[in-house]
Design a protein that fits this description.
Blueprint (H helix, E strand, L loop, with lengths): L2 E2 L12 H8 L11 E8 L5 H7 L5 E11 L2 E8 L2 H17 L13 E6 L12 E5 L7 H4 L8 E3 L2 E2 L4 H15 L21 H7 L4 H13 L19 H19 L5 H16 L3 H16 L4 E4 L6 H5 L14 H4 L11 E5 L3 H12 L4 E9 L2 H12 L3 H9 L7 H13 L3 E13 L10 E2 L7 E2 L3 H7 L4 E6 H17 L10 H6 L1 H9 L11 H10 L4 H10 L2 H5 L2 H10 L9 H6 L10 H11 L4 H9 L3 H4 L2 H16 L4 H14 L6 H20 L1 H10 L7 H10 L3 E3 L11 E3 L2 E3 L10 H14 L5 H7 L4 H9 L10 H11 L29 H9 L31 E15 L5 E8 L5 E6 L1 H6 L7 E11 L2 E12 L9
Parallel strand pairs: 1-8, 2-3, 5-6, 6-7, 10-15, 16-18, 21-23
Antiparallel strand pairs: 3-4, 4-5, 9-10, 11-12, 12-15, 13-14, 17-18, 19-20, 19-22, 20-21, 22-23
Length: 982
C-alpha cells in the first residue's frame, strides 16, 4: 500500500493514473466516513502526481504522494511526503541528482517532512532516524533480521509494491523492460524486471499476510493516516506581482496602455476609450496584471535586441495588448470578440503565443530564466508516447521478429499470423499511448509565484534549460498558465531580407513593414494575394493556401484573416471551407442553417470559421453561460474530451436547444460544425496576427523578390524544398550561380541580381572547410587559382574534388577535368598542413585532350546539390512536339490534354472509403504551377517516382476559377544518361 506505480514509471509501470485509481478504489482500507488513503510513488518521477491528486476525490481517496528512488531498477529507498512541504523537499532532492546525473545514495539525507522507507534487503543496520522505516514484504517475514527481532518492531512497515493488476500487466511490464534494455525478451535478466507478485493488494489481504506481525500493519497505517497532500485547483499559481506590488503593477499597466492608446488611435471615440477602461478593469479584477506585464517585458527585451516578434493567440483580441505593443492587431478594426479574450467568468489568462526568429528565441528564453530565477521558471514537458507503428516495431524487436515481418505488420495484419506476430499486435495495442520518455514543449514556459518544486521535480535534457515533469495539461489544471515563447523561420526571413535589401539597395524597410495599415492598402500585395503568388511567404505559400486564395480572389486583409483559419483541417474536412467560398463568391446562393447563426456570424456568412464562433453559438444560440461556452471551446481537444465536464456541456447544449424549440436536425448540424473544427480552429486574433506577418512577407517579396528568396533559402526554406525557392528567384529575374569559393559563403549570397548558392548546400562538404574558406578570404582576400587555394586551406583530396565538381573554381578558366588532375597531383587523401612561407608549386604535366558531354555539369549538380541548375526539361527526351502549358489550361476546360511537369510536392490523403489518393504540384516548362488530382485507381497504377519530369495526361477541370488536371496516366521521363559512366 506504500509503493504504487503508474506507467509514468517509464518503461516499467503498466497502468494509467485513472486505471490505478479504479483498481485502488476496491482495495483500500476505508474509515467510517467512507474515505481511505492511497500512496503514489512512481520511480524517479512526479509526472502523475497532480493528475492523481486531482482525480482522487472522485474515488473518495485521500492522496498521498512520494517517489520511489532507484538507480536503474535497483531500489534504494522510498520517500513519502508527509505534507506539501515534504513533497517540495522530495522534488528538490530528486532534481539535484537528475541534474548531476548521479546515482542516488544508499542512505537518504535528512528529508524534512518526509517518511523514508528502506527495502529490507538494502538495510545494513545503520541507525534509523525517527521518520525512517524498513519495509518488509510478506515473503521476507521469516528472514533472520525479522525472526530474531534485530530491527525494532516500531521501525518496520508492511511494504507491498503495487505495479500490476494481473498477468497481462506483468507481461506488458516485461516487454517494456526488454525495450528499455534493448534486448530480446528471452534474454531479459531477472534482475531487470519486477516480481510477478508486485500486485496491488487489498488491505484485507495484507492483514492476513502480516497477521503474526500486527505492529508492521499499525506502523503502515500510521503513515497512511499521517501523510496527506492537497492542492487548490481553482486558483492561479502564476507569478502574481511583476514589480513592487499589485497596486504598483496596475498603475504601470494603465500608464503603458494609455500611452499606447494615444499612439495607436489618432482620434479615438468614446466607445474605444470605454473598451480600454473595461479591459483594464477586468484584467485587474481577475488578477492578470502581472501576466500582461511579463509578456510586455519580453517584447520590450526583444525590441532592445533588435529581434522581430509576433504576438498572437486569444490575447490578440485584446485592446490592452495592442496598445502595449504585445500584438500588432487592432481588435476594434477587426471587430474581435472581446469575450474570446477575457470575461468575468474566465479562470485562466488569455493565450499569448509570442513568436521569435529561430535565431533569437533561445536568447529570449535565457532572459526569462535570468530575470525570474531558475527556482521559479521551467520549460514544460510533453509526453512522447508509443505510437501505433513505433509500438509494433518495439514489441516486434523484443520478440525477435525479422525487420521485414515487422514492416508488414506496421502496414496491415495478414491472415494466418504466427503466435509471435499475434502477440506483437496484441501487446502493441496495450502499450500504445503509454509515455515513452519526456520531451520539451515547443515553447511553453511557466513562471510560478512559489518555487516550481512545490509542484514538480525537474528533468534536465542533454542540452538546454530545466523542464517540468508534467505537461501543459497538468500545469493548466493546477493553475500554472504557460507563456508560449515560440520560434519560427518566417521572422528570420523578414529580418535577413531587410538586411539584404539594405546592403543591395541601400533602402531601410524596417519602418515600412511595421506600418500595417499601409501594407493593407498596398496594390502589389493585393495583386499577389489575388493570384496566389505567395511562394515563400509566411503561412500562405502551401498549394492548399494558394488554391484557397485563388478561389476566394482574396485581395484584402480580412479575407486573408479568414483564409488563415479556413485552411485548418477541421473546417476544410467538414465541407464548410467550400461552403464559405461559395457564400463569399455568390451572395445569391447564401443559405443559413438558422437566422440566429446568420446574425451571429454575419462576417463569415453563417459559417463557423474562428474559435470565437464556438463561443458565440454556445452562448447566444444555445444559451450556455460564457463559462460553460469556454469549457466547450477547450473541451474540443482530445485530452479534455475524455473528461466528464465536456460531456455534461454537450448534454446541456442539446437540452438548451430543445428548450428553445430548435428542430433536432438543426441542433445536430450546428453541433457537427462545432465538433468538426473546434480542436483545429484559430481564434480570430490569432489568424489576424498570422495575417500581419504574411503581409510583411508579401510586401518584401513584392518589391524585393530576390533578396526575399535568398533570405528564405538561408532560413531553411519553408513549405517546399530549397530548389523551389531558387526557381522562384529565377522567375523574378535572378541569375543563379553554382557555389564559388570566391563569391560564395556558407549561406547564399546576392550581388544585385547575381545569386551565388552557398557552400553549405554542397552535399558532404565539411563545415570546417566552409569556415576555413571564409576566414581565409577575410584575412587574405580572394583566391587566385587552385594552387593558391590548396596553399591556404588544409583540405583533403576528397573534399577538394567536391568543390571542383560543383564548379567552385570556374573563375580560374580551367575545365573541371583539368582541375581534378591538378588537385590529384597536389594532394593526398589526408589534408596537408598549411604552410604559406615555404611551399612549391607541384610539377606541371601536360593533360591530354579530354572529352565532355552536354549534361556533365547537370549530373554533378544533381548529385551534389540535389537538383540541376539548368532547366530539368532540357535533360529529358520529349515524346511530343506540343504540351499544354499551365497558362493555357482555361482554354482546354473539360478536355483531355497532355502536360509536362517537374515534380514539386505531393499531398497524400484518403477518400471517405479509406482509399489513398494524391494531390500533386508541378511546374511546367515556363515555370508556372500545375495542380493535379490523382484518384485512387490512378494513384495505384501510376505512383510517384520522386523528383523529375513527368508527362501528365488527364482532363482539365475548374472549381471557382481554379484550374487543375485530373490525371488519367502519369509517366516518369528519365534524365539523359551520364555518359562518363558508360
Amino acid at each position: 500500500m506504500l509503493n504504487n506505480h503508474t506507467y509514468y514509471s517509464l518503461r516499467y509501470g503498466s497502468l494509467s493514473t485513472k486505471e490505478l485509481l479504479e483498481h485502488a478504489v476496491n482495495v483500500i482500507d476505508r474509515d467510517e466516513t467512507g474515505w481511505g488513503s492511497f500512496v503514489l510513488t512512481d520511480i524517479n518521477t512526479t509526472s502523475a502526481v497532480l493528475d492523481f491528486i486531482r482525480l482522487c476525490p472522485a474515488y473518495h481517496i485521500r492522496p498521498i504522494v512520494g517517489i520511489d528512488f532507484r538507480n536503474g531498477i535497483d531500489q534504494q529507498f522510498i520517500g513519502i511526503a508527509q505534507n506539501n512541504n515534504g513533497f517540495l523537499v522530495l522534488n528538490q532532492f530528486l532534481s539535484e541528482y537528475l541534474k548531476r546525473k548521479q546515482d542516488f545514495p544508499a542512505r537518504a539525507p535528512s528529508l524534512m517532512d518526509c517518511f523514508v522507507i528502506y527495502p529490507l534487503e538494502k538495510y545494513s543496520g545503520f541507525p534509523l532516524k525517527p521518520w525512517e522505516y524498513v519495509g518488509v514484504r510478506s515473503d521476507q517475514l521469516l528472514r533472520k533480521p525479522i525472526r530474531n527481532h534485530e530491527i525494532p518492531s516500531h521501525r518496520l512497515v508492511a511494504l507491498q509494491t503495487g505495479t500490476f493488476r494481473n498477468k497481462k500487466d506483468f507481461n506488458a511490464h516485461r516487454l517494456l523492460r526488454a525495450i528499455d534494455n534493448n534486448t530480446l525478451l528471452s534474454k531479459l535478466p531477472l534482475e531487470e524486471q519486477a516480481f510477478e507478485y508486485d500486485t496491488i493488494s487489498s488491505w484485507d489481504s495484507l492483514s492476513k499476510q502480516f497477521a503474526l506481525y500486527p505492529r508492521l500493519l499499525e506502523n503502515t497505517k500510521t503513515i497512511l493516516e499521517t501523510a496527506s497532500i492537497e492542492f487548490d485547483f481553482t486558483t492561479s499559481k502564476n507569478k502574481k506581482v511583476f514589480g513592487e506590488s499589485k497596486d504598483a503593477d496596475f498603475i504601470q499597466l494603465q500608464s503603458l496602455a494609455y500611452v499606447g492608446f494615444s499612439e495607436r488611435y489618432a482620434n479615438p471615440d468614446a466607445p474605444k476609450k470605454a473598451r480600454l477602461d473595461m479591459e483594464l478593469d477586468t484584467i485587474f479584477k481577475l488578477g492578470f496584471t502581472a501576466y500582461f506585464l511579463i509578456n510586455w517585458n519580453l517584447t520590450q527585451y526583444a525590441k532592445s535586441k533588435g529581434y522581430y516578434y509576433v504576438g498572437r493567440g486569444s490575447g490578440a483580441n485584446s485592446m490592452v495588448a495592442y496598445c502595449m505593443y504585445i500584438t500588432n492587431v487592432d481588435p476594434v478594426d477587426l471587430n474581435l470578440y472581446f469575450e474570446r479574450f477575457i470575461n468575468k467568468y474566465r479562470k485562466t489568462p488569455p493565450d499569448f503565443d509570442i513568436d521569435f526568429s529561430w535565431t533569437d528565441r533561445d536568447d529570449v528564453i535565457n532572459y526569462i530564466f535570468k530575470k525570474y530565477g531558475t527556482s521559479n521558471v521551467a520549460m514544460l514537458a510533453t509526453y512522447n508516447t508509443f505510437k501505433y507503428k513505433s509500438a509494433i516495431r518495439e514489441i516486434g524487436k523484443v520478440f525477435g521478429l525479422p525487420k521485414g515481418e515487422i514492416d508488414v505488420l506496421t502496414r496491415y495484419a495478414p491472415n494466418n499470423l504466427d503466435n509471435l506476430s499475434q502477440l506483437t499486435l496484441r501487446y502493441s495495442e496495450v502499450i500504445q499511448s503509454f509515455p515513452n520518455h519526456l520531451g520539451i514543449h515547443a515553447g511553453g514556459i511557466v513562471i510560478s509565484d512559489l518555487p516550481i518544486y512545490n509542484y514538480t521535480a525537474h528533468n534536465f535534457p542533454p542540452k538546454g534549460v530545466p523542464i517540468t515533469q508534467f505537461s501543459m495539461h497538468e500545469a493548466e489544471d493546477i493553475g500554472l498558465h504557460k507563456f508560449d515563447i515560440l520560434s519560427q523561420r518566417g521572422l528570420g526571413k523578414i529580418k535577413d531580407a531587410i538586411q539584404l535589401v539594405q546592403q543591395n539597395h541601400n533602402v531601410d524597410l524596417s519602418r515600412s513593414i511595421e506600418n500595417v495599415e499601409l501594407l493593407k492598402k498596398d496594390p502589389e500585395i493585393k495583386k499577389q494575394l489575388k493570384k496566389g503568388n505567395t511562394v515563400g511567404c509566411f503561412y500562405v505559400e502551401s498549394p492548399g493556401m494558394r488554391m484557397l486564395l485563388s478561389k476566394l480572389k482574396a485581395n484584402d486583409y480580412r479575407r486573408l484573416v479568414a483564409a488563415s483559419s479556413i485552411i485548418r483541417p477541421g473546417v476544410a474536412k467538414s465541407g464548410m471551407m467550400r461552403e464559405y467560398i461559395q457564400r463569399f463568391r455568390f451572395p445569391d446562393k447564401r443559405k443559413y442553417t438558422h437566422p440566429k447563426l446568420a446574425e451571429l456570424m454575419e462576417e463569415t456568412y453563417g459559417v463557423m470559421v474562428y474559435q470565437e464562433d464556438v463561443l458565440k453559438v454556445a452562448h447566444f444560440f444555445a444559451g450556455l453561460t460564457l463559462e460553460e461556452a469556454d469549457v466547450l471551446r477547450r473541451g474540443m481537444s482530445r485530452k479534455f474530451k475524455e473528461r466528464n465536464e465536456f460531456h455534461l456541456i454537450k448534454d446541456k447544449f442539446f437540452s438548451n436547444c430543445a428548450k428553445k424549440g430548435y428542430p433536432q436536425n438543426i441542433t445536430a448540424e450546428v453541433w457537427m460544425q462545432i465538433g468538426s473544427f473546434g480542436s483545429y480552429a484559430f481564434s480570430k486574433g490569432h489568424s489576424a496576427s498570422y495575417a500581419v506577418e504574411s503581409y510583411q512577407s508579401l510586401y518584401i517579396k513584392a518589391y524585393y523578390p530576390l533578396e526575399y528568396m535568398v533570405a528564405t533559402i538561408n532560413n531553411g526554406g519553408g513549405f517546399y524544398r530549397q530548389e523551389s525557392y531558387i526557381h522562384e528567384a529565377k522567375m523574378h529575374g535572378g541569375n543563379i550561380h553554382a557555389p564559388c569559393v570566391n563569391n560564395s559563403r556558407g549561406l547564399v549570397t546576392i550581388y544585385e541580381k547575381e545569386i551565388f548558392l552557398g557552400l553549405s548546400m554542397v552535399q558532404d562538404l565539411e563545415f570546417r572547410i566552409i569556415k576555413a574558406i571564409g576566414e581565409s578570404k577575410d584575412r587574405n582576400g580572394s583566391f587566385t587559382d587552385l594552387y593558391n587555394f590548396i596553399k591556404r586551406i588544409p583540405i583533403s583530396k576528397t573534399q577538394l574534388n567536391l568543390l571542383i565538381r560543383i564548379g567552385a573554381f570556374r573563375f580560374t578558366g580551367k575545365t573541371k577535368k583539368e582541375l581534378l588532375w591538378e588537385g590529384c597531383l597536389s594532394l593526398g587523401e589526408k589534408p596537408k598542413e598549411v604552410n604559406e612561407l615555404f611551399s612549391f608549386r607541384p610539377r606541371q604535366f601536360e593533360i591530354p585532350q579530354l572529352h565532355y558531354h552536354n549534361f556533365e555539369d547537370a549530373h554533378d549538380e544533381i548529385e551534389l546539390l540535389g537538383f540541376p541548375l539548368c532547366s530539368p526539361f532540357s535533360l529529358v527526351k520529349k515524346e511530343r512536339e506540343h504540351f499544354v502549358m499551365a497558362s493555357e489550361m482555361k482554354n482546354h476546360l473539360n478536355k483531355v490534354v497532355v502536360m509536362l511537369g517537374y515534380f514539386v510536392f505531393v499531398k497524400t490523403t484518403k477518400t471517405s472509403n479509406g482509399d489513398i489518393m494524391y494531390f500533386g504540384t508541378f511546374v511546367d516548362p515556363k515555370g508556372d504551377f500545375i495542380d493535379t488530382v490523382h484518384f485512387p485507381q490512378v494513384a495505384i497504377n501510376y505512383p510517384f517516382r520522386g523528383l523529375g519530369v513527368y508527362a501528365l495526361k488527364g482532363k482539365i477541370t475548374e472549381d471557382f476559377d481554379f484550374y487543375s488536371i485530373e490525371v488519367n496516366t502519369m509517366n516518369y521521363l528519365p534524365y539523359a544518361e551520364d555518359k562518363r559512366y558508360d
